[in-house]
Amino acid sequence: MGEVAEAESLIADIEALGAKLQKARQSVGRVIFGQDEVVDQVLITLLSGGHVLLVGVPGLGKTKLVDTLGTVMGLDARRVQFTPDLMPADILGSEVLEEGADGKRAFRFLQGPVFCQLLMADEINRASPRTQSALLQAMQEHKVAIGGQILPLPEPFHVLATQNPIEQEGTYPLPEAQLDRFLLEIEVDYPDAAAERAMLLATTGASEAKPVAAMTARELLEAQALIRRIPVGEQVVDAILKLVRGARPGEGGLPTVRDNLAWGPGPRAAQALMLATRARAVLDGRLSPSLDDVLALAEPVLRHRMALSFAARADGVKLADVIAELKASLG
After folding, report:
1. pTM (two decimals)
2. Which residues does the UniProt record annotate as the domain AAA+ ATPase (predicted)?
């Protein structure tokens, strides 16, 4: 009886979370037009407790999406514009020497913008490797080291980074270790004609729709804990392992992988896919993930964790085609 009651409680919690997420979707949709899949994938990332890399040309609403999500999810959101002269202290904070009324001097720590719950790192690849590594520690450990002290970051803590794919002059490519810290890499494309028309009419009138809060930071933390309790069937687990392991050149899988990839995804890719498929199922109002969830999330989970060989790039091979063959091999 105890197991039955526990299962019923889990189902009720999942259904309640699904209802909250529908409200969040609707609230974001009042402000962000024509990017439903992008919004869903960012919500999946937040539910999974991860960070996301948004790749797209300027003017597609990436910054507005982060501001909107901060309001809708009840999170303290901040933004940092990354530039080549940005220093680690500009993100983490710094110590300043202050003199008190009694004449005594003491150091006081001034928190940087990283001490928030939702940090937008705009054009992250414009910052120097030294600054990127400072953000990497925060993303990986959810804490920072300043002046010999270890300071925890607020909970939850998520980084939504953007990257411009067309302006590569004066940029520093993200190292593989940092790319792997992002749960998903999401491509933000142009909206279709109907969505752009709706956007045009909604954003150039006398008043604009405003997002409303649908969740709180505590509810998001509870949702992240709930996602980890959702059962995953053996078929889905096997598909995740087959997909991730099959994307490694040394595993002796598909000829496409052996011939075209320099390196493939590590175990963190399978962990990301496991969490993301659960979150996608809840977002769609289902109680457990299916093979369709694995196929839908394969590309955003894998593409930044794989690299084409020099010969493959010279031959015009695309990562999307390699991933498509991997997905097809799942049957």
Report:
1. 0.90
2. 48-192
